[in-house]
Specification:
The protein is α+β, with helices and mostly antiparallel strands and about 425 residues long. It is built from 14 helices and 16 strands. Helix content is about 35%, strand content about 25%.
Amino acid sequence: MKESEYITIEEALKKGSGKVNLRGWIYRQRASNKFVFIVLRDESEIIQCVIPKSKSPEIFEKAEKLTIESSVKISGELKEDVRAPTGFEVSVSELEIIQIADPFPITEHQSPELLYDNRHLWIRSRKLNAILKIRHTVVGAIHSFFRGRGYYEFDAPIFQPSQSEGGATLFEVKYFDDIMYLSQTWQLYAEAGIFSLGKIYNMGPTFRAEKSKTSRHLAEFWMAEMEAAWMTLDGAVKVAKDEIRFIVQEVLKDNKKELEILERDIKLLEHYAKAEYPTIKYAEALEILNNEYQMNVPWGKDLRTKEEEKIAEHFKVPVVVTHYPTEIMGFYKPPSEENPKEALCFDMLAPEGYCEIIGGSERSLLVEDMKRRLEADGEDPENYSWYFALRRYGSVPHSGYGLGVERVVQWICGLDNIKDSIPFPRTMLRKSP
């Protein structure tokens, strides 16, 4: 049979009736003396197929041998059947076995660690299939959002000579006869790029050697970042809010079926897609935490996960917190002219306990202040001489932010663990498969 004569299961379900030629893998199989029922899966959907012994003993005998994940080609008559998992059933007239699978190592009620050990097989599950399709939409939406606003895609090196987000989280790698570091962000290079292209964005792998075992951290993840010349903090915050709403809208448009598989609250996502997101200052966040939740958080302390959860829970939509204390922020986040103790920076916190999904700032133009802060962190400012040169040749105000792709996917999908938002997670304790 020609390849063009096969259709996906999703296409078959839309067709609704008639002869269909399908191919895929055995998702479920059960047999009696008279029938073999198989649920076939492909990349698009699942469908029930029935093989009556009375109709074709030869096909019945072949179907009895099928194991979970065996690969097959099937032809038969499609009809509606409300009892079937997706509302239709194929009466099989032809069955070609491509490969009989060995006993599948994953059965029901397996431990999370076994699923991670077998991630190369578990990505076939309906749950991960749904998550990966939503991730695909999220990534595509990010590209569409920025390109639609006139941003240019700009790539930065993954091998970098110095830190940008704290030396304690650097991955050191041998680079010929020297030492380099895996990228913590594209930001410093993006700040060079804006003087050529104006408005730029990027999607790339990011590495943080955080010794964290939480459900919110990965050692390797993907970050979608933007940088724009002439943009203030307020401008960056507005872009971030628009981007998140756009992403949620695109997922709702393209992935309602996958959201249903994940049992996600679609009405809640529809609310996030339309709602206005509030902006508050760090000082206001402390007032809420201390006065309404009696958390006694002192000024100058960075917000922990439980405090971020309370703020997002308070507003019940994504919320932006700006003007964190300058001295606990990165060297490139400038002090406010109105109050130098406050930095011109922001985080966006997602509700339902998902916390920070975006972090950004205006970029400092104060070379001496940046040198002082680097020295206080034990860094040699000479390593950043090329970066400081950007302030000597046509410097302008500019801003940017980074969006954690996995954190956004985790929030939109309603996942308990960020490791399920990426095909093959890398953490402090997980380096294979």
